[in-house]
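Sequence and fold
=================
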Amino acid sequence: MIGLFPGDYIHIGGDEADKSEWKKCPKCQARIRTENLGDETGLQSYMIRRMEGYLHSRGKRIIGWDEILEGGLAPRAAVMSWRGMQGGIDAARADHDVVMTPTDYCYFDYYQGPADFEPLSIGGYIPIETVYAFEPTPASLDEKQAKHILGCQVNLWTEFIATPEHAEYMLFPRLLAMAEVAWSPKSSRGWDHFLDRLTAFLPRLEAMGVNYSRSLYSVKPVLERSSDGRSALVALKSPAPFAVIHYTLDGAEPTAASPRYESPITLQGSSTIKAGLFLDGALQGRIVAVPFLVHKASGQKVTYTHPWSDRYQAAGPTALVDGLTGSKNYNDGSWQGFEQHDLEVVIDLGREMEIRRVSSSYLEDFGSWIFAPREVSYAFSDKGKEFQTLAVLPGGGIQDGNEITIHHFGRDFSNVRARYLKVTAKNIGVCPPDHAGAGGKAWLFVDEIIVE
């Protein structure tokens, strides 16, 4: 490889090394003792340092995924930070060069639009506006440390991509957004101006025969307000402000003759909103059909005992009562994730009212470390201080396999009046012994809590 590639760097990988066998290997344990390495993490660092020394003697530098930080970084190594930004920040502070490539912005094998309309993907969700919001140089670095950020890298892993046309679809137009992020100073970037340039550039992709995604032309309903449990004010939003939104509420497919969206829509009860983006009277992309739920908890105040993960925050404090339900894609923007923590929330319904049914939904995606809750409970209170638990629903156990499941935990009630509802869902805590991430922190993903 040294003879084949004239560049300065050799990428040695170093990611996702399962050390469970090292713990049982007599030779590995002997090497740890002989070299005074401490543990298996130190053993990996020892291996990386030996490889770094050899490649340096041949005039090369190593670069590896951020796991090579574990146990101590080799003297001249550069780091590709993929498990978030922190690995890159740590490396830059230690005077090592960095390429930023975090999954939340740079993994282009993730979905870029609604999963129901996209080719099958590994999961995740990174629309073009998320790509454009990426800032490769963290503000927490000082001027000297920031110089170690060499740039950023897009990754397109192809387990689910079989053709060049599919690869083009996953890359474009997101690659245009990343190019501007990588090659333009932050002070000169702006989403609206980028859209102007993108609109002018898309015909070039057409002329070149590039199979680019039209997911930019998507519409997303967003709850603006709900106060009485019977109606809701819903806004229709899109990352493409240059196009016109037309919608329907009667089940018909929208056309250019359908009502034009001008301001938030009042829904009288649960409805399915169908909407599409039109440019010069022609539909761009696909029609989006979104069931929007209006119920007694819609838009009400939710208080959390444990915070949600910043990585999977959905709509933040309103995510669990925003009228939108998640798909089987855990990163579709509707699911709220809790890493190892339980879900415990209190919903203030605004006034005392009769409650006939409560339900909540949870995602199970075994391969993504997301598990159904061990149990779900519902408790009620008049004043929000002392709660009476009236339902405890056991989980169904852990499903081993690749099937992704949405679990619904519901219970009917009679003669229950309350203002406050407490919902508790128990996280299993850690991945089970037969899981690839055995012992690692388990995720709990929750969506709409519905009160009727």
The CA atoms of residues 359 and 410 lie 4 Å apart. The radius of gyration is 25 Å. The chain has three domains: 9-208, 220-292, 301-451.
